[in-house]
TrEMBL record:
Protein name listed in UniProt: F5/8 type C domain-containing protein
Keyword Chloroplast (UniProt): no
GO process annotations (BP): motor neuron axon guidance; positive regulation of axon regeneration
Segments for region (Disordered): 1-35
GO MF term list: ATP binding
Subcellular location: Cell membrane; Cell projection, Axon; Perikaryon
Biological source species: Caenorhabditis remanei (Caenorhabditis vulgaris)
Domain F5/8 type C: start-end pairs: 1-151
TM stretches of this protein: 354-376
Membrane topology note: Single-pass type I membrane protein
Annotated InterPro entries: DDR1-2_DS-like, FA58C, Galactose-bd-like_sf
Length: 509
């Protein structure tokens, strides 16, 4: 409560004096919120029905409860002098009431508003919801703060059925903490009590009887118990804590019969019988283990038989050695063995297997060599086919003779020659110093004569007799962004052009 693991919406109450200042959300111990505590609307007495309820998300084991009054920095004067505990879980048909070892329901609480009082329960309770019910011998105003101590219930037991214990000289050996259905007494059904509360009885059962459940021999057929789990369990052993005070005619059971069922209706014919040797030396209480050999079951029924010459049979606790299983059974007579059987197989060997292995090995080796050789030859052939001849020569010869170009290469060479010629002509043009990505030709440096002179010497026109250097000659002047440069262009070979002629105008197109 105080660490706020329990949220406000998990806390409710029968009523509140003022929901905002004294509602159930202010019932956390050791905290001063609102007006300091939960205060019910009505005053409390022995007949009042006010309660504070805490709900859990799962079944929870509660071992102790702590209570406080309303302190509110010294202004509060209300507290509960006593309270009762009621609890519920899905397997119960109704709310159950907690009882201590003396079968009392009332638990002492506080005598002031400041100090907290913690009460440890004589036996833990398993609850999904718990109610703290304040009570008082006189009518009074009560306010409470509460803290709970416990842990989630991690077992899968839903309930056990048992016949109610007997009385002896006014002493009860009943299972009085049983929280199931008591209407069919002496047969108890649908609940959990002393036999599954993790509390074992002490020696001298007729004095320290609070933890024991005892049955007299008057019963025929022994003592019958039935345990039901919420899932299939793989059970490997059952442990029973029993008394053996043979001098007082309270011996341990002499034998046990165990039946199993996966659905609670049909029980297997494979019954386990266990005989317990009689012990006439020690009267100390003891655990007796019944080996089960891994039986899959959801319900286990036990029948305990009285010891020889014994009038009483006492049991304080029953535990199961089991774990979860996902096995889906078609019938109940399934036993999981504890051990594994090993088998060996011997074959007659006359040497033929070794001979066959040698032949297979050599055949595999030959095939592997052939495959490698074929792959190597194909690879060598591909390398030779793709390699160029070292003696191959490539020559491109161009010349300009008048208005024609002679060549003896493939037509693709025309495009390369034309591109080279155009690039040379462009480089020949003077450029003006314009600072931009595009440079206009600069004709200011050209003379009057050269300004009107055709770029190519020998082209038909009025200036075909004018002497002008060939634009493809080795020395060319050109202007780039306002500056004049000289560069040397490679001379193009002029001889050996005899195979074909092409008009220059067609070439330039």
């Amino acid at each position: 409560m105080s660490n706020r693991k329990i949220r406000d919406e998990q806390i409710s109450a029968s009523s509140s004096f003022d929901l905002q200042s004294t509602g159930p959300q202010h019932a956390r111990a050791h905290q001063e919120s609102g007006s300091g505590a939960w205060c019910p609307k009505n005053q409390i007495n022995l007949l009042s029905k006010e309660w504070l309820q805490i709900s859990f998300s799962v079944d929870t084991v509660i071992t102790s409860v702590e209570t406080q009054g309303r302190y509110d920095d010294g202004r509060g004067q209300e507290y509960a002098t006593a309270f009762k505990i009621q609890y519920w879980r899905p397997s119960l048909n109704a709310w159950a009431s907690y009882k201590d070892d003396f079968e009392l329901e009332t638990i002492p609480a506080n005598n002031n508003t400041e100090h907290a009082v913690r009460r440890t329960l004589d036996r833990a309770i398993i609850a999904r919801r718990i109610r703290i019910v304040p009570v008082s011998n006189s009518t009074r105003t009560v306010c409470m703060r509460v803290e709970l101590f416990g842990c989630p219930f991690d077992d899968t037991l839903i309930s056990y059925d048992v016949e109610q214990g007997d009385l002896q000289s006014g002493i009860s050996y009943h299972d009085f903490s049983y929280d199931g259905n008591l209407a069919d007494a002496p047969h108890l059904t649908g609940g959990i009590g002393k036999l599954y509360d993790n509390e074992v009885g002490k020696k001298d059962v007729f004095v320290n009887h609070h933890k024991w459940v005892g049955w007299r021999r008057k019963r025929t057929g022994g003592v019958k118990l039935s345990f039901e789990f919420g899932e299939l369990r793989n059970i490997s052993g059952i442990l029973i804590h029993t008394a053996n005070e043979f001098k007082k005619s309270a011996k341990a059971f002499s034998s046990v019969s165990v039946l199993f069922s996966t659905n609670g209706r049909d029980f297997s014919d494979n019954i386990i019988h266990f005989n317990n040797p009689e012990d006439t030396e020690s009267e100390a209480p003891r655990w007796i283990r019944i080996p089960v050999n891994n039986r899959i079951a959801k319900v286990a029924k036990l029948r305990l038989n009285f010891g020889s010459g014994s009038d009483w049979l006492f049991v304080s606790e029953v535990n199961f050695e089991s774990n979860h299983t996902n096995i889906e059974l078609l019938h109940d007579d399934v036993v999981i063995p504890d051990s594994v059987s090993y088998f060996s197989v011997t074959e007659h060997d006359d040497g033929t297997s070794m001979f066959a292995f040698i032949i297979f090995f050599f055949m595999f080796l030959i095939v592997a060599v052939i495959i490698i050789a074929v792959i190597y030859r194909k690879r060598e052939y591909r390398v030779k086919a793709s390699s160029p001849s070292p003696n191959a020569k490539r020559e491109i010869l161009l010349t300009i003779d008048g208005n024609t170009i002679k060549h003896h290469v493939s037509p693709s060479t025309y495009q390369m020659a034309r591109d080279n010629l155009q690039n040379a002509l462009i480089e020949k043009m003077p450029m003006s110093p314009i600072i931009s990505d595009y440079a206009e030709p600069d004709i200011s440096i050209c003379s009057d004569v050269t300004a009107n002179t055709p770029l190519l010497y020998g082209i038909d026109g009025p200036y075909d007799t004018q002497k002008r250097s060939n634009p493809l000659s080795s020395m060319v002047k050109y202007s780039d962004y306002g500056e004049v440069y000289c560069t040397t262009l490679p001379e193009i070979a002029r001889d050996n052009w005899r195979t074909e002629t092409l008009p220059l105008k067609d070439f330039m197109e």
